[in-house]
Amino acid sequence: MSSVPSLRRNLSGDLAQAVVALVEQEGLRPGDPLESLKALAARFDVAVPTMREALRRLEGLGLVDFRHGSGIYVGINAGRRVLANPVQSRPDADQLVELLEARRQIEPSLAMLAAQVRDEAGIALMEESLASAQEQIASGDDALWLTNLDFHRAVAAAGGNSVLVEVLDSIVLVHAEDQREILRLHGDASADYAEHARIAECVRRGDPQAARDAAYTHLDHVVEVIRARRG
């Protein structure tokens, strides 16, 4: 049973390495465009969600850059030789709780800022990720965890502060496999979606305190679930 997630992680890692090799072979430099997500999936003969997962790994390392409405580009860290290791063993529950507690210190404030600023591009990304999540819940798409991460990143983007967006990315993307395990253990996709929708509603209507409280409550619930399964 446990071999299936392992195979998926290996495939994602192999694809990530193949994209890095492609960038090197074609002599691409930071800022150069890559093929579209669908074209890359076709090139490597994999499903689009699998390709997206591999690219998100590379995004967390600054090796590729997703630009909403524009495409995928070579990231600023392409060519660097000292980077975080994207291949990690499955974390234990204590490590997951630590990660969630770190997010709980940061993300409520980001949600508050999002409700104050309501950056249009960030709001659009937030709505897009919610719509995608709804479709994935209905279809049972196992790439839902990536869309959920995109929602949290979109809330940060709605605050209009690119430095804070990078701070959140450094947590949720570099620790992407940990986030995947958190969402697997949480197990209630519909409840998770409802809490995301609540955060989005507060941001949309410009209620900073409610947005902060909704984000804190959401992460607090996830912490409770992981703690209950610890040990």
From TrEMBL:
<dbReference type="InterPro" id="IPR036390">
    <property type="entry name" value="WH_DNA-bd_sf"/>
</dbReference>
<feature type="domain" description="HTH gntR-type">
    <location>
        <begin position="9"/>
        <end position="77"/>
    </location>
</feature>
<dbReference type="GO" id="GO:0003700">
    <property type="term" value="F:DNA-binding transcription factor activity"/>
</dbReference>
<dbReference type="InterPro" id="IPR008920">
    <property type="entry name" value="TF_FadR/GntR_C"/>
</dbReference>
<keyword id="KW-0238">DNA-binding</keyword>
<keyword id="KW-0804">Transcription</keyword>
<keyword id="KW-0805">Transcription regulation</keyword>
<protein>
    <submittedName>
        <fullName>GntR family transcriptional regulator, transcriptional repressor for pyruvate dehydrogenase complex</fullName>
    </submittedName>
</protein>
<dbReference type="InterPro" id="IPR036388">
    <property type="entry name" value="WH-like_DNA-bd_sf"/>
</dbReference>
<dbReference type="InterPro" id="IPR000524">
    <property type="entry name" value="Tscrpt_reg_HTH_GntR"/>
</dbReference>
<dbReference type="InterPro" id="IPR011711">
    <property type="entry name" value="GntR_C"/>
</dbReference>
<dbReference type="GO" id="GO:0003677">
    <property type="term" value="F:DNA binding"/>
</dbReference>
<dbReference type="Pfam" id="PF07729">
    <property type="entry name" value="FCD"/>
</dbReference>
<keyword id="KW-0670">Pyruvate</keyword>
<dbReference type="Pfam" id="PF00392">
    <property type="entry name" value="GntR"/>
</dbReference>
